[in-house]
Structures are given as C-alpha cells and as structure tokens.
Amino acid sequence: xxxxxxxxxxxxxxxxxxxxxxxxxxxxxxxxxxxxxxxxxxxxxxxxxxxxxxxxxxxxxxxxxxxxxxxxxxxxxxxxxxxxxxxxxxxxxxxxxxxxxxxxxxxxxxxxxxxxxxxxxxxxxxxxxxxxxxxxxxxxxxxxxxxxxxxxxxxxxxxxxxxxxxxxxxxxxxxxxxxxxxxxxxxxxxxxxxxxxxxxx
Length: 201
Known about the structure:
The protein is an alpha/beta fold. It has helices spanning 21-24, 44-47, 85-93, 105-112, 123-135, 164-172, 176-181, 184-194, 196-199, and strands at 6-14, 70-73, 97-100, 117-120, 140-144, 149-152, 155-159. The two termini are 32 Å apart.
C-alpha cells in the first residue's frame, strides 16, 4: 500500500450528504477481479448521461477540478453496501484524501486498506472548505496526516483527529496483510514449533 504522510492536491467539492457506495461505484461495474480499472466508472450515474457522454456540470467533469486528489464532502460518506470497490474506484481515479464530517465505518476501513485518508473534519470547517473550493478553483490544499492539519498557502485552515493506529498504518503504508507480515519471523517460529514435521520439508 502506498503510504500517505503529507499530500498536496487540488480540492473537488462534492456538496452532498449520505453519498452511498452504489453512487461511488454502481453495481453494474463490479465485474473485475483486479483492484484497478474502476476509476473511469467513479460516480458514473452522476458524471454521465444515459448515452455515456459526460455531464459538464458535475464537479469531476469540470476543467478547474481536473486531476483533483482531495475530495471534500458532507456527512456519512460511503454509506450503503460494504463494497471495497468504492475505495478502489476513488483510488484509481487519483483520490488520496476524503474530508467529511463523518464516514460509514466500513468505508473508512476500506479506505485505510487502500491508501486513502478518510479524515473527519468538523462540519463547520467542511462548509468553509466547500465554499472555498467552489469560489477559488482550483484550490490546492495540503493534508498532513502526521500533524492532523489541512493547510493552504497561508497556514492551517482545518484540523482533524485520527487515532494513533490509523495514523501509523496510513503513514507507513500498512494494510492488514502488511501488518501481519511484520511478524513473519514470529509466525514462522510458531509454525515450526507447533508443526515440527513442516520444518523438515
């Protein structure tokens, strides 16, 4: 997993609450077995017309938000089904951080496992960031996972709290497999002791 310590990027304002995973990546695209390739289908029903042409008014289709890697949105982002494909689609599109007042628990966990910093920022500060991202596009912000801050060129504009375990995993690029492999020697030693016949193979 690619670590995220300090990330600077263009901010895309998605001024919607209760964005569910079926909107993030609709069910008809859940056919791939790889984690890659989902980016083009991100927010498909909002981004595209029925004939597959882009809707010019949707935020991610607007030129001033091209290449946006920080998404600012409202509360309860990632609700609905537990599909990890939602995190895969965001990451494949280039999103490294999502700022919102709250997240669905399973989505936040899936984001963590895919190198996306899903960070809870107070609602009042989110409202300010949404307004600024719309009025000052392209607004560039820096998300510092280690310090718990969001900054612009003039200084800190928002703060977030993140527990030490999540911070460690994100900044060191450790998903659950990576965490397990840190104890590979201990696991192997236990297996040799528990099943000595395997050690002879």
